[in-house]
Structures are given as structure tokens and as C-alpha cells.
Design brief:
- This protein has 118 residues and is an alpha/beta fold.
- The chain has 5 helices and 5 strands.
- The chain has a 5-stranded parallel beta sheet, with helices on both faces.
- The radius of gyration is 13 Å and the shape is globular.
- The chain starts with 5 loop residues before the first strand and ends with a helix.
Length: 118
């Protein structure tokens, strides 16, 4: 694994975020974590991740889908892997128009996540 591969975790549930960070760091990824969708743009510009693992529902009533749309509107094409506990038809429809995305239902299995990191 290339230790320069950066992953941004956007997750408001601290235990989930920490578990993902620890597992990915153990595999050699460089990881940073935030909990608010309103901070995604700034963090992406500062950290420049290759991948974003982002919950659909976030802190302060922010939305991962809206954060992803803002990234695309600003021509940032980082691959986004959405996580959600509720893979309803409306969620699938909302993310269908966003380029370079995948969806994983929680609880996130690290092996399933790794499949999307290529």
C-alpha cells in the first residue's frame, strides 16, 4: 500500500470514524477525519485526498450528498464512497447524478470498503 494515498473520512459518529481511521491507517493509508459536511470543501482543498468516505447524514444537519454536489460544482473529482444506515430509494436517486461515487450500507465492513479503494 502506498503511504501517500490519502483518505478523508466524513462521519459524525465518533466510534465509527475512529474505527475506520485506525483500520485504514493500519493498512498504510494516510487518513484524516471530520464530522461536519460544511467543512468538506475546505478539508479537501487542504488535505487533497484520493478518496472520501462520507456518511449521508452528518453533524449540524449537514448532508454528505450536498457536500458532494458542492465538490462536483467546483470541479473536484475525488472519488466519494457514501456510507449510510438507510439505503432507501430516495438516497440512491439523490446520489445517482453525482460522478465517481459508490454506496456502502452500514455497518461498514473494511473488506467491502477496500474493494472501492482502487
Amino acid at each position: 500500500m502506498n503511504t501517500e494515498t490519502k483518505i478523508l473520512i466524513v462521519e459524525d459518529e465518533l466510534l465509527i470514524a475512529k474505527a475506520l481511521c485506525l483500520q485504514l491507517e493500519k493498512m498504510g493509508y494516510k487518513v484524516t477525519q471530520i464530522s461536519d459536511g460544511n467543512d468538506v470543501m475546505k478539508t479537501v482543498l487542504d488535505f487533497n485526498p484520493k478518496y472520501i468516505v462520507m456518511d449521508v447524514r452528518l453533524k449540524n444537519n449537514s448532508c454528505g450528498i450536498n457536500a458532494a454536489k458542492e465538490l462536483r460544482k467546483n470541479n473536484i473529482q475525488t472519488k466519494i464512497i457514501f456510507t449510510t444506515g438507510n439505503a432507501f430509494e430516495t438516497t440512491l436517486h439523490q446520489i445517482s447524478g453525482i460522478a465517481l461515487v459508490a454506496l456502502i450500507t452500514k455497518p461498514v465492513e473494511i473488506t467491502q470498503l477496500i474493494e472501492h479503494l482502487s
